[in-house]
């Protein structure tokens, strides 16, 4: 609870006031001149880089939901939950739309999302262990009409994946999965693997797994900003390798600092809530996380 207390004290708000105000009054998370999930504006125009004086307005940060949040929730109920919390960006997982789906099935699911006012902005996390699985992931993204794959390709496939990025224009954001992951435990490991590859190869920064692996998410944003294409946001009760994710704002991660860093680097991607507890009923946790994020943005 220390990060929440510190933020509330700094902002001069009551402990009860922020969540109620934040959930009840959604701010406008509008986009200006950039498609959803398009990454970092600095890589499009380096002249935009700089301190807070040249940063994006805070309310250009957009919220999304990482599809894993809905692992145990049917598609219809997932869409309804997103509408109730006012979040319109989703990174879809294959349990809602399998990777081997027919073109007709893909179009049907896309239409279902569109009718609900939800945009599928990315696909993944998709695991890739062969060249054929890399090809399948890019074909799937193309059929979906998204320009971002959240991925975990085996390291020996990175060169081939980079070639696919270059030939298709579909970017790949590699997800860090924490100290248990033998491939990409930390965002630092991801960056070291992709730094010399096509600039369309980047990071999906999972801030909880990053902290568990010993990385400071705020520093990661500042160090690797131009290669961060997507975020999975959550909180931790303590910083340890075995810490379990909790509702955003209830833990020790520096969410205000993270948001300031994203603004400084002119982040133009999506900050997606990944709720990994109470997964048969994620609605309360997602709503509280969204309210806390919006409350921090509004107060800053």
How would the global form be characterised?
globular
**Beta-strand percent range:** 15-25%
CATH superfamily: Divalent-metal-dependent TIM barrel enzymes
* Quaternary: single chain
CATH domain fold name: TIM Barrel
**Structural class estimated from helices and strands:** alpha/beta
Radius of gyration: 18 Å
Number of strands: 10
Tally the helices.
12
Element order: H for helix, E for strand: HHHEHEHEHEHEHEHHEEEHEH
Mean pLDDT: 86
The CATH class name reads Alpha Beta
User: How are the strands of the biggest sheet laid out side by side?
Assistant: 1-2-3-4-5-6-7-10
CATH architecture verdict: Alpha-Beta Barrel
Counting structural domains, the number is 1
Largest sheet: 8 strands, parallel, barrel
Summarize the structure in words.
The chain is α/β, with parallel strands linked by helices and 300 residues long. It has a single domain (2-13, 29-299), classed as TIM Barrel. 40% of the residues lie in helices and 17% in strands. It is built from twelve helices and ten strands. The strands form two sheets. The chain has an eight-stranded parallel beta barrel, surrounded by six helices. A two-stranded antiparallel sheet has the order 8-9. Strand 4 (148-153), helix 7 (158-168) and strand 5 form a beta-alpha-beta unit. The longest helix has 17 residues, at 283-299. It is globular. The two termini are 19 Å apart. Residues 7-38 and 41-53 have low confidence and may be disordered.
């Amino acid at each position: 609870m220390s990060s929440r207390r510190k933020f509330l004290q700094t902002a001069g708000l009551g402990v009860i006031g922020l969540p109620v105000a934040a959930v009840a009054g959604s701010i406008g998370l509008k986009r200006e001149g950039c498609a959803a999930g398009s990454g970092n504006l600095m890589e499009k125009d380096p002249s935009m880089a700089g301190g807070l004086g040249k940063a994006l307005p805070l309310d250009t940060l957009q919220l999304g939901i990482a599809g894993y949040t809905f692992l145990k929730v049917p598609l219809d109920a997932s869409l309804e939950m997103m509408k109730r919390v006012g979040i319109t960006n989703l990174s879809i997982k294959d349990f809602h739309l399998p990777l081997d789906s027919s073109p007709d099935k893909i179009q049907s699911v896309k239409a279902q999302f569109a009718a609900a006012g939800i945009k599928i902005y990315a696909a993944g996390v998709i695991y890739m262990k062969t060249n054929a699985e890399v090809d399948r992931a890019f074909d799937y993204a193309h059929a979906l009409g998204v320009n971002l794959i959240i991925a975990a390709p085996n390291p020996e496939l990175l060169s081939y994946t980079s070639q696919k990025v270059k030939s298709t224009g579909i970017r790949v954001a590699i997800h860090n999965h924490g100290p248990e992951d033998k491939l990409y435990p930390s965002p630092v490991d991801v960056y070291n693997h992709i730094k010399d590859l096509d600039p369309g190869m980047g990071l999906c920064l999972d801030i909880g797994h990053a902290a568990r692996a010993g990385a400071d998410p705020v520093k990661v944003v500042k160090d690797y900003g131009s290669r961060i294409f997507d975020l999975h946001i959550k909180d931790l009760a303590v910083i340890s390798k075995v810490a379990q994710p909790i509702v955003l704002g209830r833990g020790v991660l520096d969410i205000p600092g993270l948001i300031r860093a994203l603004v400084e680097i002119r982040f133009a991607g999506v900050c997606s809530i990944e709720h990994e507890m109470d997964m048969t009923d994620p609605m309360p946790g997602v709503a509280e996380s969204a309210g806390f994020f919006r409350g921090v943005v509004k107060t800053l």
